[in-house]
Every structure is written in C-alpha cells, then in structure tokens.
Amino acid sequence: MGLFKPNIKKMRAQNDIEGLIKSLKHSSVRVRYDAVTALGELKNARAIEPLIEALRDDTGAGWQAVNALSNIGYAAVEPLIRALQDKDKGIVRLAARALGELKDDRATEPLVEVLRDEDWNYRYEAVMALGKIGDTKAIDPLIVALKDVTSAVGKRQRLLEKSGTIGQYNL
C-alpha cells in the first residue's frame, strides 16, 4: 500500500469497511493494528474473511484480529471453524482462542478434533476454548486430554495440581 498512512479514525467514522480492509495490507504495523481494531468495532460481516486472513499477521495485528472477530460475533463462528483446518498452525491456535471467546457450541466438535493434534500448543488452546464454551459434549474428550500422561496438556494439568492453582481454572 502507498507511502501515506491512511486515516483509520476517519475511515472508521465514515464506516468505510473497504478502506479499512485495504489498510490491512499496509506496510505499517500500527496501521494494520488500528484497521483490525476499527473493523472489530464496526462489527460488519464483510470484514470476517479479511480478518481471518489478518490472523496470519505475526505482529500484534494478528492477535488483535482474534478480538475483532469475537466482536463481530455469531457471523464469525463458521469461518473460524473452517480456520481450524488451516495449514498454518498459528491460525489454528488463534481461531481456537477466538472460538472460545465467542462461546458458541457449534465449535465444540471441531475443537475436539484439535485435541488430537500432535502439537500441545494447539491442544492447549482447544482445551481452553472448550472450557469457555462449556458444552457437556466436550467433557469426555477433555478428561482424556487431561489424563494423557504423554501430552503437554496433561503435564500442565499435573503442574497446576502440584502448585495448588488448579482450583482457579474451570476445566
């Protein structure tokens, strides 16, 4: 995108969704971050797919996209569920986090699938998301994940138990 910084505040005030979406490609991290934030505040469903793509941004803008998608709410659930299948595991992790924030039980089964991933980081995000959703269909898979002595999720559970902080978590 050009040499000049777009005026994100003005675009947000004018509900310029297309301009904000274009700003997601700007070279400035600050512009991308502010554009993601503005799109989340506007809660427009047209921004969902560009925000899912923004999850790939390995700066704070990618993390902020989780909040923006959570702000958009219900309409973002299905695209986030599809994002759980992404080849980029960072997207999977952030999508799981966003689905946990949305607390929509449509995400339960896809998140249970993430519990089978080889990498503990993704399983951990799925555990946390499922805990927030609170769907009883996830209880048995969560118990299996927590009891698996070889998994990092199970190891984290045992560390929390040893430290006495397990009671602080509602899993």
Taken as a percent bin, the fraction of beta residues is under 5%
| Top-tier CATH class of the largest domain | Mainly Alpha
CATH superfamily of the largest domain: Leucine-rich Repeat Variant
Number of strands: 0
Could you tell me the CATH topology label of the largest domain. Answer: Leucine-rich Repeat Variant
Roughly what percent helix? 55-70%
Mean pLDDT: 86
Radius of gyration from the alpha-carbon trace, in angstroms: 18 Å
Distinctive features:
mainly alpha; Leucine-rich Repeat Variant
Q: Which helices and strands, and how do they pair?
A:
Elements (H helix, E strand, L loop, with lengths): L7 H6 L3 H7 L5 H14 L5 H7 L5 H13 L4 H7 L5 H14 L5 H7 L5 H14 L5 H9 L4 H12 L8
Q: How would you portray this structure in words?
A:
With 171 residues, the chain is mostly helical. The chain folds into 2 domains: 1-83, Leucine-rich Repeat Variant, CATH 1.25.10; 103-171, Leucine-rich Repeat Variant (Alpha Horseshoe), CATH 1.25.10. The chain has 11 helices and no strands. It has helices at residues 8-13, 17-23, 29-42, 48-54, 60-72, 77-83, 89-102, 108-114, 120-133, 139-147, 152-163. Helix 3 runs parallel beside helix 5 and helix 6 (77-83) packs antiparallel against helix 7 (89-102). The longest helix has 14 residues, at 29-42. The protein is elongated. The chain starts with 7 loop residues before the first helix and ends in an 8-residue tail after the last helix. Mean pLDDT is 86; it is low at 165-171.
